[in-house]
Amino acid sequence: MIYLYQNNKEYDYDVRAIALAFFEREKIVEVSEQEWKERLAEPVPEDSGSGGRLLFLKLEYKTEQIDGLVQDSAGRQVREQVFCDYSDHGTNRNAVSRFLYRLFSKYTGRTLPWGMLTGIRPTKIVMNWLDQGMEEEEIRRRFTETYLADVQKADLCCKVASREREILRSHTFEQEYSLYIGIPFCPTTCLYCSFASFPVSRFGDRMDAYLDALKKEMSFVAEAFGSKPLTTIYVGGGTPTALDEPRLARLMDMIHQYFPVPSIREFTVEAGRPDSVSREKLQILLDAGVGRISINPQTMHQETLDLIGRNHTVDQVEDAYHMAREVGFTNINMDMITGLPGEDISHVRGTLDRLGALAPESLTVHSLAIKRAAHLNMEMERYQSLVKGSSNDMLCLVDETCRNMGMEPYYMYRQKNIPGNLENIGYSIPGKECLYNILIMEEKQDIISCGAGASTKYVYPEENRIERTENVKNIDHYINRIDEMIDRKRNMTWQ
Ligand code: SF4
Q1: Can you tell me the distance from the alpha carbon of 227 to that of 377, in angstroms, rounded to the nearest whole number?
Q2: Closest Cα to atom 6 of ligand 1
Q3: Where are the domains of the chain?
Q4: pTM of the full predicted structure?
Q5: CATH architecture designation of domain 2-108
Q6: Which bin fits 10, alpha (ψ -120 to 50), beta or left (φ > 0)?
Q7: What pLDDT digit, counting tens, does each position of 65-116 carry?
Q8: Ligand 1, CB cutoff 6 Å, lining residues
Q9: How far is the CA of 185 from the centre of ligand 1 (A)?
Q10: With contact defined as beta carbons under 8 Å apart, do 107 and 70 qualify?
């Protein structure tokens, strides 16, 4: 628990984000100055939820100066100051963030790989500097000095941004749009899941009604955006292959009915759960023009798969992969997660060894994020001792292994609630990158999304502005309120 007193909320967002980067999952409670003093004087309650630790953070904004104090229940104190005109938010935000970082770093004795950066798209910063004509060496220096990040992270950002630039240079994607379609059914619910996902055993009877609603939404999108070229289609979820064969065929027919599949650059479908894959489904996808699929083991350790509720075996992952190759897929991605409960770096090595032997074209590596709505978070007491989180060593091992497999990092993003404050990275063999992933990360074009929980993004590059509209996540609400979901898009489209 962190008791926070601040006499100005100008940097409240940054204060909380940087504090949580150091003190993961701690609850921050804002109090008055009087209450702050009183709490500090009280004995530590046994159920404080922090292993008996209470932290007291005080930020005093004075004239062109902020004084910071971190004190703990054992009486230990550290102080830090920053001198700047903090009311000029645009100019001084980085200086204030560095001050907060130094304050927490001094108290914990730790540094963070990404320094004080808490944003989810660090490559956008580098992309911007590259566009201004800065050399990579200068970018690395500026990145580490501005954000107090490791050279290794600056280097990663430079590599990813340069690769993205090269891929995006070939075309004016700004004039086009991409389409996302969400299928929110899964065989079971994974422990860490925070997506729109409903187990087939309980919600399978909604599949037809769901496809009916989706058809209505797709029909609207096709009409409203028909004049714009379509760059990519990405069908995710959930697990699209959780649909049975006839319904998966119906979904593919619907996509072909409304969108010009033969002329687009990329068509990806997630076949994430190997227990949802069959030869016939793979054939349906291939025949529909799907060029890229994703088979996602997350780990190649059976005990972890059992623990996280995936309900499939390691052998099923390999069987689904080989089946996809036999059917004819030449671009297969696999997802894995580092920092899963009970796993350390030796498990990551084991998973990488088995995935390396399969030789997929791309590997997407997520650092475990503990989202508020996930069972893992709600049942944290039960899993606390097993959740050590991802570590930078794990990501270094991933990086080395992927490079040995001939892959390069090509897209990257960070999320809140990743223990260790790390990142998610997509690696691929050159030429097999997922264009959709780059487009969505770099916010280069509109992404129009259909389905429960899907988020649509309109990009206005000239105004450096993005607008979003979300569909409801609940499957029944999505079905029953489909006209309202369409109206949300309509209102934005014609603004
Ligand atoms: S497969 Fe993905 S969407 Fe489905 S339950 Fe697991 S994490 Fe959630």
Answers
A1: 44
A2: 190
A3: 2-108, 122-168, 171-493
A4: 0.91
A5: 2-Layer Sandwich (3.30)
A6: alpha
A7: 999 999 998 889 999 999 999 998 889 999 999 999 999 999 999 999 999 9
A8: 186, 189-190, 193, 195, 197, 237-239, 272-273
A9: 9
A10: yes
